[in-house]
Amino acid sequence: MDPVYHALSLYKKRCFEECVSTCTELLDKNPFDQAVWILKMKALTEQLYVDDLEAEEEGIAEAFMDNETIAESARPGTSLKNPGTSQGGSTQGYRPWTQTGRPVSGVVRPGTQTARPGTMEQALRTPRTSKTARPSTSQSARTIRLGTASMLSEPGGPFIQLSRINLGNYASKPALAKPLFLYILYHENNIRHALQLAVLATQACEFKDWWWKVQLGKCYYSLGLMRESEQQFRSALRQHQCVETFLRLGRVYIRLDQPLSALDVCRTGLEYFPKEVTLLTEIARIFEGLNNMMMSVKYYREIVTEDSTNVEAIACIGMHHFYTDQPEMALRFYRRLLQMGLYNAELFNNLGLCCFYAQQYDMTLSCFQHALSLAKDDDVADIWYNIGLIAIGVGDTRLAGQCLRLAISSDSAHAPAYNNLGVLELRKGRLNEARAFFQAAASLAPYLFEPYFNHSALSHKMGDLQASYIVIQKALEAYPNHIPSQELLRALEKHFTVI
């Protein structure tokens, strides 16, 4: 078999390592074979290629050094930084929120659990990923670590010395320039050289190739130059309409905290590509970020109509039904995920909760047993916490206390477990222990209102009115619409007024 054909066959079979080794042998014999050189570049690129549309995550630097702020106090429903101002959204009373003020999502996506903490201290203290307690850095920093790790495993050093290559010679040759650009961007992760090549190639094609404009926009976006990125994407859309370009332009507006503009871009894309699932998903995510759950679920239902196996849409709809007191409906969607072959601890945990609230008690414990058998280190604490909730629901406070302590032993920063342990200690009459648990929960999760309210009510019961008054104000800062907190505050103010 011809060696070049064999290498190409390996590339099509996605056997990239064998393809690279075969191309290396061919280049050792003939270093000027451009076809083999391009094939090796493409194979190396595919080894490290990541879908940066789904892998991007805003780091601390982007969150706190953003100079693109439009308004300090945005109008209700127009900002992702302050989604609590949305009209008609969900409340913390029945759906838990993250530290950023957004309701918990049905699936873990970049930006759902990690977007914009309130303070720099909170950002540094809070684990940003599921694998490490280290706060996440920017997208470019993460891909740099991927690139350097891959280069260490390559014998003989890097394939191309970027510092010695003359990019101008390749810019006028599209067959060489495009694979070289992707290699520099994804394998080497050298955005500066990639941007330089894209600029030269755009000039060489007299600004008529929309593909190069999209790549320019990607480079500007990675460098944080949002307005330049917006200009390139819009110029590309005037020449050629592409789903990826609409999505990337929408992400630019999201970074600029202009979700309404992002929605307009996605809706314009739907005019060219009706019922496109990726555009519908982006719209549903934006509405979810704006705390407009009804519109988000509406678009997720459209996604399920077009793609009945879309895991994200099914999970989000199921979670919405669960938190709107429809566990039977949620159970149908989670069972659908199980029938599709999804088999993990999170799904069995949700199935167990749905079975319990739907009064199917015979299935509840078996679901949680499956969840514990499949659980990883990051999931064990949440599963024991939910088992503790079920034990509280059936009145077995001893089992509940054991489960909550197991949750804390698995994750020492699990604030809801500390709060519930405080409630159990309060029922037993151990007031000092209960106060300690409430204070620990509040220090670990200042965005939760329950520990503050419980601590304030306990202090009021013990006669410490000043501490109760101070703590209840923090509870109302976390959740201003909590009626019991408002009533307790009025009672304390009335007491102080009478005195």
UniProtKB/TrEMBL annotation:
<dbReference type="Pfam" id="PF13432">
    <property type="entry name" value="TPR_16"/>
</dbReference>
<dbReference type="GO" id="GO:0097730">
    <property type="term" value="C:non-motile cilium"/>
</dbReference>
<feature type="repeat" description="TPR">
    <location>
        <begin position="345"/>
        <end position="378"/>
    </location>
</feature>
<feature type="compositionally biased region" description="Polar residues">
    <location>
        <begin position="127"/>
        <end position="141"/>
    </location>
</feature>
<feature type="compositionally biased region" description="Polar residues">
    <location>
        <begin position="92"/>
        <end position="102"/>
    </location>
</feature>
<dbReference type="GO" id="GO:0034464">
    <property type="term" value="C:BBSome"/>
</dbReference>
<dbReference type="InterPro" id="IPR028796">
    <property type="entry name" value="BBS8"/>
</dbReference>
<dbReference type="GO" id="GO:0036064">
    <property type="term" value="C:ciliary basal body"/>
</dbReference>
<keyword id="KW-0802">TPR repeat</keyword>
<dbReference type="GO" id="GO:1905515">
    <property type="term" value="P:non-motile cilium assembly"/>
</dbReference>
<protein>
    <submittedName>
        <fullName>Tetratricopeptide repeat protein 8</fullName>
    </submittedName>
</protein>
<dbReference type="InterPro" id="IPR011990">
    <property type="entry name" value="TPR-like_helical_dom_sf"/>
</dbReference>
<feature type="region of interest" description="Disordered">
    <location>
        <begin position="73"/>
        <end position="141"/>
    </location>
</feature>
<feature type="repeat" description="TPR">
    <location>
        <begin position="415"/>
        <end position="448"/>
    </location>
</feature>
<dbReference type="InterPro" id="IPR019734">
    <property type="entry name" value="TPR_rpt"/>
</dbReference>
